[in-house]
Amino acid sequence: MLASLLNKQIVIEKETTTVNRTGTPEKSYVFLKETWAQKLDNIASTRYEQEGQLAFSLEYFIIRFDEEINYKCRVIYNNNYYKIEGIDFIERRHWMKLKCIVWERATQY
């Protein structure tokens, strides 16, 4: 893996749980890091759920290894949120390959 291939800048946010005034837990995301990534070609596919067929877009991002990144994180790239569905380690944990699904459109980035 060549570091020069990391030519896209992405933001990674981590899920946190806070308690509101009524004591109800609420999930929110906080900034974790901004990093460089290699974006691999997207794959459009179909997933079968209880509601029927759902089209989704699958994206792969390769980044440098960071032990703080896990399945409770999300990626923001090109005004879209991406839910992390899989994490593969490359070259003895020097790199991470994030398998992501487009989640929703971001408004703040």
Describe this entry's structure for a reader.
With 109 residues, this protein is mostly beta strands. It has one domain: Thrombin, subunit H, CATH 2.40.10.370. Helices cover 0% and strands 71% of the residues. A hairpin with a 2-residue loop joins strand 2 and strand 3. The protein is globular, with a radius of gyration of 15 Å.
Question: What does the secondary structure layout of this molecule look like, with pairings?
Answer:
Layout: E1 8-19, E2 25-49, E3 52-64, E4 73-77, E5 80-90, E6 95-105
Antiparallel strand pairs: 1-2, 1-4, 2-3, 3-6, 4-5, 5-6
Provide the β-strand percentage band. Answer: over 45%
How many helical elements? 0
Can you tell me the CATH superfamily? Protein of unknown function DUF3599
- Mean residue pLDDT: 85
CATH architecture: Beta Barrel
CATH topology assignment: Thrombin, subunit H
Distance between the termini: 28 Å
Q: How many domains in all? A: 1
Q: Classify the helix fraction into a percent range.
A: under 10%
What's the level 1 CATH class? Mainly Beta
Shape: globular
* Major sheet characteristics: 6 strands, antiparallel, barrel
Broad structural category: mainly beta
Q: How many DSSP-defined strands?
A: 6
**Oligomer kind:** single chain
Tell me the radius of gyration.
15 Å
Report strand order across the widest sheet.
1-2-3-6-5-4
The parts where pLDDT drops under 50 for at least 5 residues are none
Q: What's the order of the H and E elements?
A: EEEEEE
